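Exercise: predict the fold of this chain.
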Amino acid sequence: MQRVREILARIRRILRRGSEAELETELAFHLDQSIQANLARGLTASEARRQALIDFGGVEQAREETWRQRPGWLLETALQDTRYALRGFRRNLAFTLTVIATLALGIGATTAVFSVVDPILFRSLPYAHAERLVSVGLTAPIIPEEFMLGGSYYVWRDNQKPFEAFTSETGATECDLTERNPARLSCAGVEASFLPTLGVTPFMGRNFLPEEDRPNGPKAALISYGLWQSHYGSDPTILNRLIAIDGKPARVVGVLPKGFEMPALEQADIVVPQALDEAEQRKADPGRVMYAFARLKPGIGVAQASAALDPVFQYSLNLAPPAFRKEVHLRVRSLRDRQMQDMRLTAWVLLGAVFAVLLIACGNVASLMMARGALRERELAVRSALGASRGRLARQTLTEALLLSFSGAVLGWFLAELLLHLFVALAPAAIPFLDKARLDLRIAGFTILLACLCGAAFGILAAIQRPRPIALAARSTNSGAQTWLRQSMVVTQIAVSMILLSASTLLVRSFWNLYSQNLGIRTRAVLTANITLGRQSYDTGQKQMQFFIQTEAALRRLPGVTAVGVSDSLPPSGWHHESILNVMTIPGKTQSTNGTGGMVAWRWVTPQYFHALEIPIEAGQGFTEDERTSTEHLTILSKLLANRLFPGQNPIGQQIRPSPADPDYTVVGVAANVKNSGLTGNDEPEYYRLRRNFPEDWGPSSALILETSLPAQSLAPWVRQEIAHIDPTVPIEIQTMSERVSKLADGPRFEAALLSFFAFTDLAMAVIGLYGLTAYVAQRRTQEIGVRMALGAGRADILRLIAWEGVRLIALGGALGIAAAIGVTQILKNLLFSIGPHDPATFAGVALLLGLVALVATLIPARAAMRVDPVEALRCE
């Protein structure tokens, strides 16, 4: 031992001089001398080497202590670990590239999805103290969102207590900028207190003055930043300029800030004062429909505000007809909740799915790291015997893990850029703030955080495997703890795959049910043309009627056109007239007092409307061309409405009055039901009013529906040409009916496609992990396989032996996955259509698919194991 101490003292002197090369030479020389001495004492070769390493166990500790005495030792140690790791990666390039590619996929996909959902879930709204902004109002069947009526809004504003500011808007409508360079825009009417309540200051100019928000006040306007740039070329002299909106001059008093958003997310190129007569509105019953927004006082929550508004809510409730009061409710919710609505659930589902992909990617990398650690166990055992502390070895392993993780993050950043462009291209326009999804510094910070967490996660898993003394004497060892940990990760991967596959399959089946349902209308070979006439050129009903009648006649002459219908709206979704069922009266029949009865859709149509959309007339007859000049008011009911108004009776020839302000209408027919509330909405009862050749039946907006024997899209140029001959200044939007319906399914299609992509990515990674584990187990048991085969075991016995390792993991992971999926898919309930979240066929099909794919991944290495030569297997050690 005296000689060993002398050698160690010499080594420490070498360490102080910092000569690594001299140290390695000296250590190798004395280590060899020690081994020879131990062999002379009668020890075996492995025992002689192990004892020599134990004798020199203080070398690594001396090295580390000497390094700590030098300035900048931590940085030098990190650089040393980095150089060592890079040399190891270069020697095992296949392992390095596999790990980096796996991490790039997980981190890249997660970064791309996070950049999409970040504005929906986490970014603050573009208002001052946005967390205190709320949407306030009444809910009733007549309007889907909370609203206010002019007859009670001002009472609420004067008597509310939980808010420091209370304001309203009347929504956005189309308007025309009738200047030398005309444009069709969107104009929103707001109260003068609107911007101050939101905490928004104009980019240029000022807000509206109180006198400008009066019926006969000076006409003022705020234009959007985008309109200022695109239409006025960022002209700094725009302030106080008069612009013509629908032919009426208004003074530009300011430019809205860049990125300004209306709280209800409607498009607004120009904001004007709503200029309501407050005195008239207070007396009105019910008054103008408005949308109210408020700013909570500090320390007041939504629940407290809702309770404080109960007295003014009761006031409004008393103004409603007694039969309707039970269907009117108070709603106060945060502005973010109003804007995002169901998209928050979709965002959380997508974020959860992509984090599952990242989890499985990290699991696969951890498994690879542990497999590599098992191969390096002898190397680490030597370093440990030389005195390296457990922390020193763990630091080296973590350095390697972080280097791999950050390399994967860099590659993943470029992958995220590609995926983000793909998501934006495929995503429906209904996803809010999609135009704001980008890879910025905030997303970069998120990516760096992911890299750190991933590196730490699989680095720690690899670092906790302490090298064992037996590794000094054996060429390979088998760690039961390590095998158990890898098995646990594979089980988790299979369970997560089961959850994602179940969820994605439910969404795919839901989308198919949605897309293939019977809408009640023809969608193939139908072209639609939506037209909104300018208010300056077509300022009377007579001019509007003449334009559409002339257009209808011109389009009927086009080749291949078999029918042309005109309506003010189109199914299966979008704007249409609505009225309350129990407001409709039938002569000689008592009006119902049982609530509102729900909503009834209605639209103005010309006679060929039903033929163009192939809507069957099931009783009576359709409208005729001769009836368009009649003074009689005629209507056709849907089958659903006919059954509600005239249960067990023949509705043909009956009279109905849609509202107290309407004349009596004669029912001439009953049409088949048509879907009007979008693809996911419930069927609504409906009636159709004949659009006669009288100005009062027409308006500035209409949709023309063309049934054709030719491909629908081929007619579009001819339609544009015919309308241009009548008036080349009229804007027109042309779509096939198939395109309209397809766009309605964009949201469910996007959700199903994205979740399916993540699910199958997850499945592929889980299968790779299972394959790797089975191959690893088969390689570790090579000697055992040789012994078994030498003792008479057949190839089928070896196949069962190795395959069982994977089969039991598949069974356990699948069982846990099904149990978890039953709970997780309940979250998707509101996203599903005509299928339940616990559909047995879905779970059975997914389990069968997962089981078959995973079984194949298990059998491949198992078949390789059964072809092992027993002689070669017994030589493996």
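Check your answer against the key: The chain is about 50% helix and 15% strand.
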